[in-house]
Amino acid sequence: MLTKKTLKTATLGLALVGVAMGASANEVADYPSKPIQFLVAAGAGGGVDNFARVVRPMFEEAVGGARITVVNLPSASGALAHQRTANGAPDGHTLDFASTTYVTSLAAGQNPIGLDQLTPVARMQSDVMALFVNPERYPDFESFLEYAQENPGKVTVGGTHTASPDHVAFLSLRDASGLDMNFIPYDSTGNATANVLGGNIDATTTSLSPLLSYIEAGQMMPILIFSEERLDHYPDVPTTVEHGWDLTDGNDRAVFVHADTPAELVQHLEGVFQEIFASEEYQAYAERVNLDYREGWMGGEEYRQRLENNYELYSRLLQNGN
């Protein structure tokens, strides 16, 4: 039975919902109302850093000329960037740019900020992973494979951090191939690359786009692609699947906000990034740096499902490998 008290409570509830919806609508209409920070959960010069800095002027234009600062926070596999985002204001002015490292470090227990504290806005990149070497040392994968088989335990492969996409790619390759290799973590893709070029390590597992300039200069070369089919730009480079290894996972790059950011604002931000993704300028960039081999775009809710599924996968892999 509806009483006056029930009606009063219901009316108050509807009024509060209306106020909340009005506040959210105002937040979208007023966005941005202050300077914006792009927190990059990685070091300078890597794929996530390049992603954030390429998107920055496009985002500034899309939201009406906001002032944006890019801040690199690579410490603890990027966990500091996630903590700052989760501890900041839920108003969409702090955007967390992260790679698959977010979920791999979560699976490894190195990242205390879960999906209950961050909301994915969108994924914009799915980069192809590869095994890279200095071509003066290893002209092709067969020479690398032969050396690794003849020298068990002596091959060292570098990458960014432990429990990163680089590390997971290494573990996957080591487990599938049966090669006795060791992983050495570095704080950035640039440092791992420098150590390959300096002869301190044999190879690095990382994604294609950050090393494009090294490839073009002839300093670094992919010798094994984590893919089902050979890539158009690298027709002579074999794939993992060719060798009977079902290793095709890539490195995602996405944007996150505080979990309490109003849903209307999250949807607005997703729309902004989708518009940027579809633009001729962004697509030209993606093609230029070999990011067009796989579909990059994924909306926030769909990407959340992918993260949850990958969390289970990476948890098992990292539990079995060191």
TrEMBL record:
The signal peptide, as residue positions, is 1-25
Which superkingdom?
A: Bacteria
CDD domains registered for this protein in UniProt:
PBP2_Bug_TTT (cd07012)
Has the keyword Signal been applied to this entry?
yes
Answer whether the UniProt record assigns the keyword Signal to this protein: yes
Give the keywords, sorted. Signal
Q: Which protein is depicted?
A: Tripartite tricarboxylate transporter substrate binding protein
Task: Tell me which species this is from.
Answer: Billgrantia ethanolica
